[in-house]
Amino acid sequence: MVTELILGLYLFVMAVFIGFEIISKVPPTLHTPLMSGTNAIHGIVLCGAIMIAGRPISVWSIVIGWIALVFAAINVVGGFVVTDRMLEMFKKKPEAR
Predict the structure, then answer these.
(1) Residue 56 reports pLDDT greater than 80
(2) CA–CA distance from 28 to each of 23, 24, 31, 32, 39 (Å)?
(3) Rounded to an integer, what distance in angstroms lies between the CA atom of residue 18 and that of residue 83?
(4) In degrees to the nearest 10, what's the CA dihedral of 69, 75, 80, 83?
(5) Rg (CA), the chain
(6) Residue 72 pLDDT more than 80?
């Protein structure tokens, strides 16, 4: 159990570090495609949260699974809203008559 916890923490810290390094080097022109890719990843996180929340191992796993489910859903919806707003900036506005 302790070994699994240490391995999980190690993977989490490495993922945070690598993610920060990758995101900080992205030029502003690529933020919209990056946001779309991030939405796809958060969809996978949402599926994982559903699987964890639906497996009754313990009360804590169900509670944490539901919390992850809520946060992942908020993140996916927010990502689509931001992407939609960014894409609206590139549409041509109709000419006034």
Answers:
(1) no
(2) 10, 10, 5, 8, 17
(3) 23
(4) -160
(5) 18
(6) yes
Which of 67, 61, 23 lies closest to 41, judged by CA?
Answer: 23
Reported pTM: 0.56
What is the C-alpha to C-alpha distance for residues 30 and 70, in angstroms, rounded to an integer?
Answer: 28
Q: Which two tokens stand for residue 5?
A: 């916890």
Mean pLDDT score, 64-89: 82
Calculate helix-pair angle for 31-54, 59-88, nearest 10 degrees: 160
Among the listed residues 21, 65, 19, 23, the one whose alpha carbon sits nearest the alpha carbon of residue 45: 65
CA dihedral of residues 29, 30, 36, 41 (deg, nearest 10): -150
Residue type, 65: G
Structure tokens given for 37: 């890719």
Paired tokens of 1? 């159990």
* 73 neighbors 45 (Cβ within 8 angstroms): no
Cα angle for residues 37, 13, 9 (degrees, 5° grid): 115
